[in-house]
Structure formats: structure tokens, C-alpha cells
Design brief:
- This protein has helices at about 10-25, 45-50, 120-140, 175-185, 225-230, and strands at about 1-5, 30-35, 55, 65-70, 75-80, 95-100, 100-110, 145-150, 190, 205, 215, 220-225, 230-235, 255.
- By secondary structure, the protein is an alpha+beta fold.
- The protein is globular and about 45 Å long.
């Protein structure tokens, strides 16, 4: 079974690449983040034509998450149970479903903006709520994983230059502590192998030639419980999909399971 996660940075802008990648990669389930579309605008019909069911949680703004599957899509839950609100509303940043033998979440963790911004406090609250929401499944016997854009680099080696991020979000101790707390529910970091260079970065800013210079970050993560991690046969970053015209600033992270 092949599972992947990909922040597409607008499903509308990335649709031709998304459809082509799904067909060429043989992916069974894809967790999508940053759809940037309303639910009724999501390309469910185009995905159905190539064999995928869709579940989408979005409001038409800059957030939005989805799961697309060709192995079943059951017990869909939209939103983060017990999650905090921002600007008076819960943002569409989480969706979960059972896909064949596995239970999966697609998550788009708040960016945090700046350490002094109220969005940073919201980010930490959101991560605490995620921990509570997944604890039972994480400790359970069924293969289970939370995949997505966490907007956090777990360790210093997960950014191209730690000094370049001094004082910024994505690398602070409270954010990393929140990830550690999430792992304590029974999840582990399924670290992919890089297809080029020595570290599996998943995101490269569009600016300042960051991709050609490999000035990246590993912020798209796969956190799986014991039965999930024990079934992993391979995992890699499909860096090729970050290349060329019309690419997202994130690359897909792919996980192969024997379940």
C-alpha cells in the first residue's frame, strides 16, 4: 500500500500535476494540504475519473485539507475535535478517514507567523488539541498515522541553516516540544530517504533560488503508531515533483507499507 502527503499550495493551480502524479506514482491514498478552494470547487469528479474517492474539508481561503483514496474512504471526520478557534472560527486544518486497513489524518498545522504573534499561541494550542484527539488511535492496534504539513522542523538538521532561522517560528523549542508530546502518544517520525543530497527536505521557498540551492526544510511529516511504522518498507521525498513550471513549493512524501 502506498500512502503519501503533499501540500499542493492550491489544488486548482496544481490539478494537472496532481492528476498526472497520482497516475504515475501508483499512490493508493494521498493526504492533501492547502487546497485553497471551497469544498464545492474541489476536483472530486476529475479524481473520480482516475479511480479516487475524495473527502474534503475547506472554506475557500488559504487553508483546506483533503484525503483521496482508491482503497476506500470510510468513517470520515472533518475538523479537529476540541480544536481552538482563530478569529472566532475553527479553521479547516484536519480531516481523518479509514482507508482500507489504515486510519489516517491529513493535517495542516497553523504556521505561527511570528513568535510574538497570537497565531503562534494558536499554533501551540492547536497542536495540544491534536495530541488529545489522536491519543486513542495512536495507542491502538490498527495501523494509524497523522500526515501533513506540520510547519515545524523537528531538529536543527531539518533546516538548511539553523542560524538563518534564529528568532523565527518553525524551529522554536515550544514547537518542538509540542511535536515531542505528540510522539509520546505512541507515534514515531517515519523519516523518508532523500532522492538527492544528504537530507530529505520537503519544502523550498519560491524566492532566492532556494530550490536549486537546496535551501530547504523538512516540515512535511509522517507520524505513525507502532503497527504503522512496523509495516513501513520504504519512504522517500519525491523531489522531482518540486521541479519545473507550476510546481508547489512542497514535494510529496511517499510511504510504502506492507499491510
Amino acid at each position: 500500500m502506498r500512502i503519501a502527503t503533499w501540500n499542493v499550495n492550491s489544488v486548482t493551480a496544481r490539478l494537472p500535476r496532481l492528476l498526472a502524479w497520482l497516475e504515475s506514482s501508483g499512490t493508493d491514498v494521498l493526504c492533501i494540504q492547502e487546497t485553497k478552494c471551497a469544498e464545492e470547487q474541489f476536483p472530486a469528479e476529475e479524481l473520480r475519473e482516475i479511480g479516487y474517492e475524495s473527502a474534503i474539508h475547506a472554506d475557500g481561503r488559504w487553508n483546506g485539507v483533503a484525503l483521496v483514496s482508491r482503497v476506500g474512504l470510510d468513517e470520515v471526520v472533518k475538523g479537529l475535535p476540541g480544536g481552538p478557534a482563530y478569529d472566532g472560527a475553527q479553521e479547516p486544518r484536519a480531516i481523518s478517514a479509514t482507508c482500507g486497513p489504515v486510519r489516517l489524518w491529513s493535517v495542516y498545522v497553523p504556521n505561527g507567523r511570528e513568535v510574538t504573534h497570537d497565531h503562534y499561541a494558536y499554533k501551540l494550542e492547536w497542536l495540544a488539541a491534536l495530541k488529545e484527539a489522536v491519543a486513542a488511535d495512536a495507542a491502538g492496534p490498527r495501523p494509524f498515522a497523522v500526515l501533513g504539513d506540520y510547519n515545524i522542523a523537528p531538529a536543527d538538521e531539518d533546516v538548511w541553516d539553523r542560524a538563518a532561522f534564529e528568532g523565527s517560528t518553525h524551529v522554536t523549542e515550544p514547537e518542538r516540544a509540542a511535536l515531542a508530546a505528540l510522539r509520546e502518544t505512541g507515534l514515531s517520525d517515519v523519516v523518508p530517504r532523500p532522492l538527492k543530497y544528504d537530507h530529505p527536505f520537503t519544502y523550498w521557498d519560491y524566492r532566492q533560488l532556494c530550490f536549486p540551492k537546496n535551501r530547504g526544510m523538512r516540515i512535511d511529516l509522517v507520524y505513525g503508531n507502532g503497527p504503522f511504522a512496523g509495516a513501513v518498507k520504504d519512504s522517500y521525498v519525491d523531489r522531482e515533483e518540486r521541479k519545473g513550471k507550476g510546481a508547489s513549493d512542497h514535494a510529496p512524501v511517499v510511504v510504502d507499507l506492507d499491510v
